[in-house]
User: What shape does this take?
Amino acid sequence: MKGVIFNAVEEAVVGLYSEDTWDDLLDAAGVDGHYTSLGNYDDAELSALIGAACPMTGHEPNELIRILGRHAFPHLADRYPELVDEAAGTHDFLRRVNDIIHPEVLKLHPDASPPSFDFEDRPDSVLRITYHSERRLGVLAEGLILGAGDRFEEEVDVRIVSGAGEATTVFDVRAVKVQGG
Ligand code: HEM
Assistant: This one.
């Protein structure tokens, strides 16, 4: 996984907890933690960090990945503001991840292998998103989707339709503008 993802997770941990927590996590996970944005690191390091963070934070792994994804999103988005600012709202932005954002990421990081997504409009402002990746990190996608909702000031509700924790996960994402927001 690209260092830019580890950097965003680090920023999420520091924002939610503290610098010391991040340092303790690195020690507990047995990783050195010098992640450069362009570097590529073993996915097992991310799993080790999550594994070490669960007992420290009291969260279950999936809950923690969702929280970290949500809070990592603004840091990831801040690195690529032009990719986020052009979107009209959460659904529009999410559709761009597959066709514009991850392909742009691949130009900058040819060794990255981001997930792919399919989209289907459903009734009642629901966008059905199908995540595909052998990394089985659909729950991270869920957190990032919630983070995108925060960014666009929309109330976002994500329901897993099928395939939780599998290489193909289907989500129904409902996004509604926050009143007065
Ligand atoms: C500005 C926004 C975004 C940027 C710049 C971005 C960039 C990236 C990068 C660099 C990776 C690492 C790929 C690798 O190391 O092989 C990645 C992975 C990932 N991205 Fe995005 N991403 C963005 C938004 C999103 C959103 C909104 C979602 C959810 C719908 C998403 C879902 C994921 C997931 C789940 C992964 C983990 C890898 C996997 O599951 O295979 N990303 N992204």
Residues 3-75 form a domain with the H-NOX domain fold (CATH 3.90.1520.10).
